[in-house]
Design brief:
two-stranded antiparallel ribbon; 12 helices; 2 strands; globular
């Protein structure tokens, strides 16, 4: 299945996209470096267990045994493909590796989304992107991969988000690439799947479908011919947190500048409201956070999708 989008005269030129993408990546890198330089000892990012687990893997040890609770706040939740992608970053000190990882993900994300129009830069100003940087998450990189078939094998690094994105923008290259990537990882460490599943089973993540009002995301199936309808439904089914970065894929529902600006504004408002709620390691405050996300982000997203006809839309084309 393909999802080509024809170029138009308003499409930003590639040199401009390249410069803007590098600029955004540098900003993301510097933001992460500055943020963690100011934190007290012991404050970690979501990506830190993956980096430490990868270091253990390269030393011939079990990456999943290397992350224990306590002292870590959570277990290693990512499959071995995520660790293989992380491997090059282990040659850098962790503080620098964090910034570089966030920066490269932002470069890829920005280059891909700006193919549609300059107004997509509003996504960089959103609360969802802010959180993706603040906790050093995979979402920007995976969104770029989902919209770039040649890179869609990267969806294997986070199967939950990867499945939701692939459901919206399916392609055969992703299936073949993910299967090959999984095969290589099994050859490298045959027992990793059982270790990973044991770690994942200990976490409190659950699908939004099981949260109050979460079933409303299934209304996206009424627009199943559209990528954004399938995306909403798939996001209701996969286990995830109530962290704000989980909403970054919803940026792809936007079709014009006002919608992009509204997404950025609503998610930034959600960020500010999160600061007024319970604070602490997740799932502290998860119930409060969910209601903020449902009212400010998910319900407007559902309304936006249901306003559209149930017909295929070229939407976000591959780069």
């Amino acid at each position: 299945m393909t999802f080509e989008a024809a170029a138009t005269p308003s499409d930003p030129p590639r040199p401009w996209r390249g410069k803007v993408s590098v600029g955004a990546g540098v900003a993301a890198c510097l933001f992460v470096l500055a943020l963690y330089a100011r934190q007290r000892p012991g404050v970690i990012s979501d990506w830190d267990p993956t980096w430490v687990g990868t270091t253990a893997l390269l030393e011939g040890e079990s990456p999943y045994a290397a992350i224990r609770v306590p002292p870590w706040p959570n277990w290693l939740l990512y499959p071995l493909p995520a660790l293989l992608v992380t491997a090059p970053f282990t040659f850098l000190p962790l503080p620098l590796a964090r910034g570089l990882f966030a920066g490269l993900g932002t470069v890829a994300f920005t280059y891909v989304i700006t193919r549609r129009h300059r107004w997509t830069l509003y996504f960089l100003l959103s609360g969802a992107m802010l959180w993706s940087w603040a906790v050093v998450q995979w979402a920007p990189l995976l969104i770029a991969a989902a919209l770039t078939p040649a890179l869609s094998w990267l969806l294997a690094v986070k199967p939950t988000l990867g499945f939701a994105l692939w459901s919206a923008w399916p392609n055969r290259k992703a299936v073949v690439g993910v299967l090959l990537f999984l095969g290589i990882s099994v050859l490298m460490r045959p027992g990793w799947i059982a270790e990973w599943l044991a770690s994942v089973a200990k976490t409190p993540h659950e699908p939004h479908l099981l949260r109050p009002g979460g079933f409303l995301l299934l209304l996206g199936l009424l627009r199943w011919r559209r990528a954004e309808g399938r995306l909403l439904a798939a996001l209701s089914l996969v286990p995830q947190t109530t962290a704000l970065y989980e909403t970054l894929p919803l940026a792809l529902l936007c079709r014009n500048r006002p919608q992009a600006a509204t997404f950025a504004g609503l998610t930034m408002l959600a960020h500010l409201l999160f600061q007024l709620g319970p604070q602490g390691p997740w799932p502290t405050g998860a119930g409060y956070q969910w209601w903020v996300l449902l009212l400010l982000v998910y319900l407007p997203a559902i309304a936006l999708v249901l306003r559209r006809a149930n017909q295929a839309d070229s939407g976000w084309g591959p780069v």
